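Exercise 7b. Backbone tokens:
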């Protein structure tokens, strides 16, 4: 009964913009391709609890899959930035507690508002202004991540091509067909653009298992190369303590980027057979611990192998002619090639939903116009990300910026949802409990705003001094 009352309060101003259930691709926005939860329109009766098809173990796997990715390549550099193994491990563990709590808050607010995607929850709980800001943040985040993916493709291809042409990396750039700009562009036009144009992305689910396998393989190779290092790999200085507290904070964006699975977590929660907050707490705790082990293994071993000389993309620190590492590079390229269209789909759907809500037009009114918009949006998105990737070769700069946005999804929006949800329940909870939860929400918002502000300031400073 209390849950129903809460839902009514939270959703009281959700329709201010006249949002309709068939506006654009909103019902499918940010749904994981391997999640088969029912949509709200398929519920048999009002107030009935929908039953998904995902088991608890399956939910753990999906969350791990959503969390792990190309971001693990940056964790050795994050340990170097933080000032050593001890600082990096402590920072990850402390942040993990906040990350897990954010996932639980989102599940609670999803149940209270009866919404099924991240941005819908924020819209329902926090209102239209925060909802629009959330959607814009998702669009910018996915756009920046697509740029990072193209840079990663270029980085790995440079190393592979250097071996294939049997020349040094410096000499390899003398041929037009080995030039970085040409190889990135060719790969993008041949594979990424055709995969990004379709309206649906369900076929991408078949690449998910290969992507997970590739992630684990990369981690295994980094650990093996630390235990049995090659003779030509000499580590640089290995600091044991941070130079300052700000150095530790500078590693936060990378950690946020790596652990950010919050946007896709709400559909996963609602796809479960028993979508209960308590069960979800166990799911995300298990998933985050698994992800923590992978990231720590990669971060510690990669950092200890190369020290402060580690590259922001750790695979670039290994010799080009190492066969095992070359296989890891191929896995990363495949993972990125299949991940780009999914991220682009999410960003495109946000923009489409915003446009249709602003115009007040359901997509079914004119299928031809929808197709033209989709192609135009896709081509524009693709060309802009490609151009920026060609002229921003440093993956570290891109990760720092989108890592700040990831902090908003992990801390700021869940914190705002918790504050607003508890304010709407002030007459139903004990004052001490209300005050503690609202204070925790304020802490999350403050922490996320600090990380976002710090990364933005650093990005501006780097551009001014470049």
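Sequence design result:
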């Amino acid at each position: 009964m209390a849950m129903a009352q809460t839902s009514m309060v939270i959703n009281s101003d959700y329709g201010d913009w006249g949002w309709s259930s068939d506006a654009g691709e909103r019902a499918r926005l940010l749904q994981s391709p391997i999640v088969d939860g029912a949509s709200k329109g398929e519920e048999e009766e009002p107030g009935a609890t929908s039953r998904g098809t995902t088991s608890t173990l399956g939910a753990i796997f999906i969350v791990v899959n959503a969390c792990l990715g190309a971001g693990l390549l940056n964790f050795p550099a994050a340990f170097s930035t933080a000032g050593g193994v001890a600082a990096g491990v402590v920072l990850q563990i402390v942040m993990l507690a906040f990350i897990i709590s954010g996932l639980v808050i989102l599940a609670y607010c999803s149940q209270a508002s009866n919404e099924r995607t991240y941005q819908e929850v924020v819209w329902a709980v926090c209102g239209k202004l925060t909802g629009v800001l959330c959607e814009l943040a998702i669009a910018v985040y996915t756009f920046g991540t697509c740029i990072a993916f193209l840079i990663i493709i270029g980085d790995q291809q440079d190393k592979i091509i250097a071996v294939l042409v049997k020349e040094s990396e410096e000499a390899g750039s003398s041929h037009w067909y080995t030039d970085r700009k040409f190889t990135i562009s060719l790969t993008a036009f041949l594979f990424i653009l055709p995969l990004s144009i379709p309206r649906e992305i369900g076929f991408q689910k078949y690449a998910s298992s290969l992507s997970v396998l590739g992630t684990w393989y990369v981690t295994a190779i980094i650990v093996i190369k630390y235990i049995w290092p090659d003779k030509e790999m000499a580590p640089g200085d290995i600091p044991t303590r941070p130079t300052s507290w700000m150095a530790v904070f500078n590693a936060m964006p990378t950690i946020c980027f790596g652990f950010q699975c919050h946007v896709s977590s709400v559909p996963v929660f609602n796809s479960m057979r028993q979508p209960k907050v308590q069960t979800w707490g166990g799911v995300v705790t298990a998933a985050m611990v698994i992800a923590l082990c992978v990231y720590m293994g990669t971060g510690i071993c990669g950092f200890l192998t190369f020290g402060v000389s580690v590259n922001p993309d750790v695979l670039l620190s290994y010799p080009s002619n190492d066969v095992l590492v070359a296989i890891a590079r191929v896995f990363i390229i495949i993972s990125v090639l299949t991940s780009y269209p999914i991220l682009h789909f999410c960003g495109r759907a946000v923009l489409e939903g915003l446009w249709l809500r602003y115009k007040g037009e359901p997509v079914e009114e004119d299928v031809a116009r929808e197709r033209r918009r989709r192609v135009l949006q896709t081509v524009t998105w693709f060309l802009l990300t490609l151009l920026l990737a060609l002229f921003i070769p440093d993956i570290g700069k891109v990760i720092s910026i989108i890592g700040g946005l990831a902090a908003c999804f992990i801390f700021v929006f869940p914190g705002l949802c918790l504050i607003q949800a508890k304010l709407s329940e002030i007459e139903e909870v004990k004052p001490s409990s209300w005050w503690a939860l609202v204070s925790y929400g304020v802490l999350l918002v403050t922490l996320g705003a600090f990380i976002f502000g710090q990364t933005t300031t650093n990005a501006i400073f780097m551009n001014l001094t470049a």
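Instructor comment: The CA atoms of residues 213 and 317 lie 22 Å apart. The mean pLDDT is 80.
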